[in-house]
Amino acid sequence: MKVSIVALAAGALIGGASASVHERHADFHKRWASDSAPAPAETCGCKTYTTTIYGEATLIPQLPSAEVNSTSVLPETTPAPVSTVIVVPVPTPMVTTCETPGTYTFPASTVTLTSTTVVCSASSTSVAPGPCTYGGVTTSVSASTTVTCPYATVETSGSVVTSIIKTTTYVCPSAGVYTIAPTTTSVSESTVFVYPVPETYEPGTYTAPVQVVTITETSKVYVCPFETISPSSSAPPPPPSTTAEASSAPPPPPPSSYVAPSPSKVSSVAPPPPPPSSYVAPPPESTYEAPPPESTYEAPSSVAPKPSPSSKPKPSSAPVHGDKWAITYTPYTTDGQCKSSDEISSDVAGIAAMGFSTVRVYATDCDALENVGGACKASGLKIILGVFIGPTGIGGSQDQVTDITSWGSSGNWGMVEMIVVGNEAIFNSYCSAEELAVFITTCKGAFGGAGYNGPVTTTEPLNVLTEAASSLCGVMDVVSANIQPFFNADVTADDAGDFVASQIKLVADCCPGLEAYNLECGWPSSGSPNGAAVPGRDAQQKAIAGIIEKAGGKTVIFSFQDDSWKAPGEFGVEQHFGCSDHF
């Protein structure tokens, strides 16, 4: 894996972003209708005028070293950690390359702006081998028009690379979504590009807090974001101290349902970390290849399909009522293929009849925007959209952003309750917290530019969210986690509601001031016990009823139907979270 730095800002233009790429095994978690999106129907002619350059092109100066603290983790013979840091006079994130492992202290910094300033900040994207396009400015127009906007680019003179702001005029021949001044190239291996983007800062005071981090990798890129990313009308609060990659690492969260783990011990002091998401997108019909076998993995085709929700016996308990907000929905048949539009319409009408007001989808495959979105509109329901990040990383999710932007700007934003960028992408090592923060910001810009004014967030298990909060809280509009009470061995079905309500309070504590939500929560109807957590139809009914009673207004119930195409997973429960017949 390589990282290409295609732009460095000189003087007042220097900004940065942290990027890291994690390779994983075959993509079990996402199915795509196609490998690439069709080319846009229209193209734009352009004229480019250089209007403003913030800072002269100069040689990149010798970079000072960050203060280094000694650490007992390293042997005495290891050279002292050395880092390079770029200090900026505007509140773009400060980027530091830590060349050697060790403990680093990054001092607090305060920047005060007296006038509106446009500078080159930075963004990043992961791309797969082959031709790729990245960067540029995305805009949406409702009719034929001429668009004039600033964009960031780089100029190279010898060994000097300077990021500058230019202005370009595009003539857009018709309504649509256009990307202005993107970069097109080709790479031979998976690569992370860091490139300049224009960013506007209003007058105010911006602060970057003290950061004390322990680095365990060589040449690690670390980003210190400014805590106040909107203008401050009063003195900034005292800068907090946060720790990243602590030398005494916490135990890892439970593995994905496609990895056969050995049973983990439950601590008597604190509950075990929350489980991974139960959502795993099935493989595409025409390109499915069985993944490399794990110790207990069985391919979906070898699993006998469970009866559909409509054919299950009704539980003896009364139907679940109460505060029902949302339920997850995946538009797949029992064997993992895409449902027809008529089947989806019937399902969504059933969800409306159950008393839910909102449907959550994880991605845009199987024509989810048109089919699920259309069915929700017909049934008077809201929709929570998802930008799914899989093993190919953020670069593999760009088409979904374009699809959502185009669909939403066609008169559909009013039914969108929330957009979730990534579903446990950090937990699955599909991207870092810093990369995800940059991508969320990019998505918000694209959606907002196309007329969307609702919340954008991401979701992770609670323990991962807690560790990543310092990177994510500043870019999310609400804070969310996936809370699955069954995977806590001390929680019974009767206690599920109280447990979920207490966990939502911890989610809120991760990002004070943001509204907190639980975006995935259920109980299995079949499988093996996990300590006091026992699956079963009656247990599922009790758990769901308690969750809705205690936290229904903040919780997305998982899920509409069983997923027979999944692997059984730990405790053999992953196929059995369908609960629609309890309503």
Automatic annotation (TrEMBL):
Query: What is this protein's record name?
Result: Probable beta-glucosidase btgE
The family annotation for this protein states: Belongs to the glycosyl hydrolase 17 family.
Q: Which residues cross the membrane?
A: none
Coarse class of the protein's main subcellular location? secreted
Keywords recorded for this protein, A-Z: Cell wall, Glycosidase, Hydrolase, Secreted, Signal
- Name the job this protein performs: Beta-glucosidases are one of a number of cellulolytic enzymes involved in the degradation of cellulosic biomass. Catalyzes the last step releasing glucose from the inhibitory cellobiose.
Against SUPFAM superfamilies, the record matches this protein to: (Trans)glycosidases
Q: Where is the composition biased (Pro residues)?
A: 270-294
Q: Which GO terms describe its biological process?
A: cell wall organization
- UniProt subcellular location: Secreted, Cell wall
Which residues, if any, are the signal sequence? 1-19
Q: Is Signal given among the entry's keywords?
A: yes
| Biased composition regions of type Low complexity, renumbered to the chain | 257-269, 295-305
Q: Where is this region: Disordered?
A: 230-322
InterPro entries assigned to the protein according to its UniProt record, in alphabetical order: Beta-glucan_modifiers, GH
One GO cellular component term: fungal-type cell wall
Coiled-coil regions, chain positions: none
Q: Which domain of life is it from?
A: Eukaryota
Give the source species.
Aulographum hederae CBS 113979
Q: Name one GO molecular function term.
A: glucan endo-1,3-beta-D-glucosidase activity
